[in-house]
């Protein structure tokens, strides 16, 4: 994977060497195997390359195809190479020589602006079409790679990261207050409901699933992929569904093992990462290679305060997976000297914007660092698994059966579910009824369930942000629709859910030369999972049934069939912050006097949050709303300070 950049003067004016050198020099802080550029009068393309796949070693990028008169710069790993070779009629003897960027170029030459529809993988690319005098590019369906751009009537510039764009004299560093308002008012983990917008007014982001076309007269963004799509897959038996799933999932895993480096994987005690790791370890064994796993575990003196259904220290579960799967070299990492507070400045530098996911920053970055030291090129994960391979909400499915009056199946399922989880059938049916007919019950939320609205009221009115959030179905108080089917549908339709993971994944990969790759987010896997009948996901009183059945033999039964406990990461965050707690509280109290903080935040809410937690840094505060408000405020304050 790589950092790409480019400048296009729409008025025909030549691109100056100083400007092109400036944007490339700003990328030099990232490790690179090669740095190349290509220019032709009013167009400049650059690539700060990291060689991850075997085909990328020595790759010429930017690449110019003299016959087709097309030039490309790309940050891409294409996974459906074999399928594309067949569709494009590429000779067998040439296939190992063709790089992913050349494959994208061939796809564009055949299908033009429709070409992104045919690509499976993680990618962002830009193509200069000399014959048509246009610049065309795209970002993969889930936005796994970033692609920022600036546009005006005379100039267009793009880059994988934001800061190099500010080396160009015509791009000003100005805050985008609408983005900022949405960041503050939206209690959920994503930043803005407009995936095209960024924290900077003059810098935009190509949204996931979108292509971009730049001509002399216009810049056009077009969505090329919409999920879900197609009809339901109907097979004859459960066994056929399992075999079909294993086939598509194994292919997705194998396609992500293409690297001349070592292969690593995140590994927790849950189903998603363990499924990925088990399938990967099996394939690597055939090549006499081992899978290196990286697992975060709490510090030794941490006492688990979480509910009995949660597990903060998953090491015993992970060890059982390692012993069962074999062919794994495990790494258990505590990062004793790190915590969410001390990580803020470095994460702001890497993210180039404020962020919300502070709870997991210390171990996320730490795992990348350890993986880089061990020569890992590909770091697998299962982050999208909850919505794809391990989908299967039991109570929501039973509510569906109740609304359909499918009494026999409902009775059998509830009976078995009650036995599995150790709960009475009346209690289960009460929960099912509330899910099926929520309008019959009074609002179940209390004040304690509400996220504090801490955006300054005048700022909220000026940006109309609360109304905008409601239009997108987002409650500023953090109340979430209880219907899991609706939530899942929005996960794939609303692009703003996808941006955060792709953003930090891209930027961490550039800093450490390690690429995060998620087989549970493979487009073929997602399409397959969205096409299945719902009864494949809940069977015999067990949710997430498809992946449980499909990993028989791959995972120990204590992991595969576990329905009573669930791991939770970051529960020791406040425990880690104890020695810094006074400094943290003092800094939060001081930032309230800053004029720009008073303009953007409700200081009274901040004061209330401080008063509730300042004297007692209990470990249980790790996921409390008050800590979220104060940490998000502090992160914003630190970020704005960097702009001065």
What does this structure look like?
- The chain is 38% helix and 15% strand.
- The chain has three domains: 2-162 and 203-223, Glutamine Phosphoribosylpyrophosphate, subunit 1, domain 1; 238-390 and 498-567, 3-Layer(aba) Sandwich (Rossmann fold), CATH 3.40.50.620; 573-642, no CATH class.
- The model has no long low-confidence stretch (mean pLDDT 96).
- With 644 residues, the chain is of the alpha/beta class.
- It has a six-stranded antiparallel beta sheet, with helices on one face.
- The protein is globular and about 75 Å long.
Summarize, please:
With 644 residues, this protein is an alpha/beta fold. It has three domains: 2-162 and 203-223, Aminohydrolase, N-terminal nucleophile (Ntn) domain (Glutamine Phosphoribosylpyrophosphate, subunit 1, domain 1); 238-390 and 498-567, 3-Layer(aba) Sandwich (Rossmann fold); 573-642, no CATH class. The chain contains 24 helices and 19 strands.
């Amino acid at each position: 994977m790589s950092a790409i950049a480019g400048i296009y003067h729409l008025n025909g004016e030549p691109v100056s060497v100083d400007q092109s050198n400036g944007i490339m020099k700003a990328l030099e802080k990232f490790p690179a195997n090669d740095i190349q550029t290509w220019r032709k009068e009013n167009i400049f393309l650059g690539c700060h390359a990291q060689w991850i796949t075997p085909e990328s070693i020595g790759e010429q990028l930017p690449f110019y195809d003299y016959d087709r008169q097309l030039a490309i710069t790309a940050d891409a790993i294409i996974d459906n190479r074999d399928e594309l070779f067949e569709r494009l009629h590429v000779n067998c003897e040439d296939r190992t020589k063709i790089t992913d960027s050349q494959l994208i170029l061939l796809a564009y030459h055949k299908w033009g602006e429709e070409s992104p529809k045919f690509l499976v993988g993680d990618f962002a690319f830009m193509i200069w079409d000399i014959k048509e005098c246009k610049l065309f590019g795209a970002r993969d369906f889930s936005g796994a790679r970033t692609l920022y751009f600036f546009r005006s009537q005379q100039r267009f510039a793009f880059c994988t990261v934001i800061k190099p764009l500010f080396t160009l004299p015509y791009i000003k560093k100005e805050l985008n207050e609408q983005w900022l308002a949405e960041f503050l008012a939206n209690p959920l983990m994503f930043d803005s409901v407009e995936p095209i917008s960024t924290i900077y007014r003059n810098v935009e982001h190509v949204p996931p699933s979108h292509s971009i076309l730049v001509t002399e007269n216009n810049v056009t963004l077009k969505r090329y992929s919409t999920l879900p799509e197609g009809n339901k897959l109907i097979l004859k038996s459960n066994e056929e569904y399992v075999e079909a799933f294993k086939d598509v999932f194994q292919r997705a895993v194998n396609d992500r093992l293409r690297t001349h480096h070592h292969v690593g994987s995140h590994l927790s005690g849950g189903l998603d990462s363990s499924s990925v790791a088990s399938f990967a370890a099996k394939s690597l064994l055939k090549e006499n290679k081992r899978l290196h796993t990286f697992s975060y575990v709490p510090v030794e003196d941490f006492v688990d305060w979480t509910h009995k259904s949660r597990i903060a220290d998953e090491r015993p579960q992970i060890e059982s997976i390692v012993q069962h799967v074999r062919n794994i070299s495990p790494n258990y990492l505590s990062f004793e000297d790190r915590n969410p507070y001390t990580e803020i400045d470095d994460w702001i530098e890497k993210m180039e914007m404020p962020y919300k996911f502070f709870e997991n920053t210390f171990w996320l970055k730490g795992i990348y660092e350890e993986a880089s030291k061990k020569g890992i090129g590909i770091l697998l994960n299962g982050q999208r698994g909850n919505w794809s391979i391990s989908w299967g909400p039991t109570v929501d499915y039973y509510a569906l059966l109740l609304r359909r009056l499918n009494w026999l199946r409902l009775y059998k399922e509830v009976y078995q579910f009650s036995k599995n989880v150790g709960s009475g059938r009346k209690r289960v049916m009460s929960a099912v009824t509330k899910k099926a007919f929520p309008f019959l019950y009074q609002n179940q939320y209390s004040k304690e369930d509400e996220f504090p609205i801490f955006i300054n009221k005048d700022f909220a009115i000026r940006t109309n942000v609360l109304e905008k959030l409601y239009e997108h179905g987002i409650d500023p108080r953090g109340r979430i629709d209880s219907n899991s089917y609706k939530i899942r549908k929005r996960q794939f339709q609303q692009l703003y859910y996808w941006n955060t993971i792709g953003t930090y994944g891209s930027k961490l990969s550039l800093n450490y030369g390690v690429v995060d790759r998620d087989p549970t987010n493979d487009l073929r896997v997602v399409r397959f999972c969205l096409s299945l009948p719902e009864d494949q996901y809940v069977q015999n009183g067990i949710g997430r049934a498809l992946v449980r059945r499909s990993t028989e033999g791959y995972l120990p039964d204590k992991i595969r069939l576990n329905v009573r406990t669930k791991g939770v990461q970051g529960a020791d965050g406040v425990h880690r912050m104890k020695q810094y707690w006074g400094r943290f509280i003092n800094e939060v109290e001081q930032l309230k006097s800053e004029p720009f903080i008073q303009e953007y935040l409700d200081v009274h809410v901040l004061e209330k949050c401080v008063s509730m937690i300042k004297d007692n840094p209990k470990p249980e505060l790790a996921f409390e709303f008050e800590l979220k408000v104060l940490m998000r405020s502090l992160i914003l304050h630190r970020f704005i300070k960097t702009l001065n």
